[in-house]
Design brief:
By secondary structure, this protein is of the alpha+beta class. 26% of the residues lie in helices and 29% in strands.
């Protein structure tokens, strides 16, 4: 029986993935469940397992090529089984596609002399023909331009991140609200039960989403779809880029369970060992830059979600309490939201609810949100 290996859809926003490495070559025997190919999608790598046993008869996609969701990567079949006609859906990604370049003989001679790639030069001649003067202007501009220390290809996780934040910035009208939180009681709780501020923010956010479900939604065409599950993604910085592992059903977990799960996911993210279930299904994202000394910032929504919470650093500040100036640990929260889905007032109420829970952290000790 012929089995097609397809590019999986790992999230609502996913449209394509990139082939990173084939673990088998054509003609190799494969067993069901055996890792077959590594692909990059949603800013992380993921191993696709063989759905059946047999022989890897045909690899249709080379390493470095992008494939749309449900595109065919390869075929497993019996050694002598006839294969159907297969359409290759991959597009070259990591290598430049050569273009036909029209240039005058003098321009080509100068390009060779100065080591210039003609694809970088804009032609001003008939039909875009590159002429000698175009080359001279290009070379002169390069001579006065700042010297390049290093060229870093925009590929892999960084390319995926660039595409996603660009999509979010283009399509979702961002509005950001900032709110200060008195973390005095939270600081005491942190010492008593050894949880982090991120753990408490995650628990508080899950509880707030239960009471403000419109924030836990997505805009799909002309419909606002409110999620039943509350699955919080918490951004983790790795050597390869930013990764957002997801805690499934965060609202059903205790503060201690959230703390344990966040540590586990962060460790796996830095080791590149996150599973599909730990990377997909997110409904709301939290990103914390406080450990880098950032007071407040404007986070970009993680599509297709409706909002994202940014967490700034905790710092000692003078505040007025009972007509007296006292020093308290203050943390700033920044909520960016899609104004097509949520208005300012309900977004502010949601953020205020998070503040209430953090300023009264004994509420966070409840078993469920």
């Amino acid at each position: 029986m012929v089995t097609k290996i397809l590019m999986p859809r790992l999230s609502l926003a996913m449209k394509k993935g990139t082939v990173i490495e084939w673990f088998k070559k054509e003609g190799d025997t494969v067993e069901k469940g055996e890792p077959l190919v590594e692909v990059l999608t949603e800013k992380v790598t993921y191993d696709i397992e063989a759905p059946s046993s047999g022989v890897l008869r045909k690899i249709l996609v080379e390493v470095g090529a992008e494939v749309p969701v449900a595109g065919i990567l390869a075929v497993i079949a019996a050694p002598d089984e006839e294969l159907p006609v297969l359409e290759v859906a991959a597009e070259p990604s990591l290598e430049r596609v050569e273009e036909r370049i029209i240039a005058s003989p003098a321009a080509k001679r100068l390009a060779k002399e100065y080591g210039v790639d003609l694809i970088q030069v804009k032609g001003t001649g008939p039909e875009g023909r590159i002429v000698e003067e175009d080359l001279r202007r290009y070379v002169e501009a390069k001579e006065v331009a700042p010297k390049i220390r290093e060229v870093i290809p925009l590929t892999g996780i960084r390319k995926t991140a660039a595409e996603r934040v660009s999509l979010s910035a283009r399509t979702a009208p961002h509005t950001t609200l900032n709110m200060e939180v008195d973390m005095s009681k939270a600081a005491k709780l942190r010492e008593e039960i050894a949880v982090s501020y991120t753990d408490m923010v995650t628990k508080a956010t899950a509880k707030a989403l239960v009471e403000h479900p419109i924030i836990n939604s997505t805009l799909d065409g002309a419909q606002i779809k409110v999620f039943h599950d509350i699955n919080l993604g918490v951004a983790v910085a790795t050597e390869k880029g930013l990764i957002v592992p997801v805690i499934q059903n965060t609202d059903s977990k205790t503060l201690e369970e959230i703390a344990s799960k966040l540590k586990e996911l962060a460790d796996k993210a830095r080791q590149g060992k996150l599973t599909k279930d730990e990377l997909t299904g997110g409904t709301f994202t939290i990103t914390n830059l406080g450990m880098y000394g950032v007071d407040t910032f404007t986070p970009i929504i993680n599509p297709p979600e409706t909002a994202i919470l940014g967490v700034g650093r905790l710092t000692e500040k003078p505040v007025v309490e009972n007509k007296k100036i006292v020093i308290k640990p203050i943390m700033n929260l920044s909520l960016s939201f899609d104004h097509r889905v949520v208005d300012g007032a309900p977004a502010a109420q949601f953020l205020r609810k998070i503040r209430k829970f953090l300023e009264n952290p004994e509420i966070l000790l409840a078993a469920r949100a």
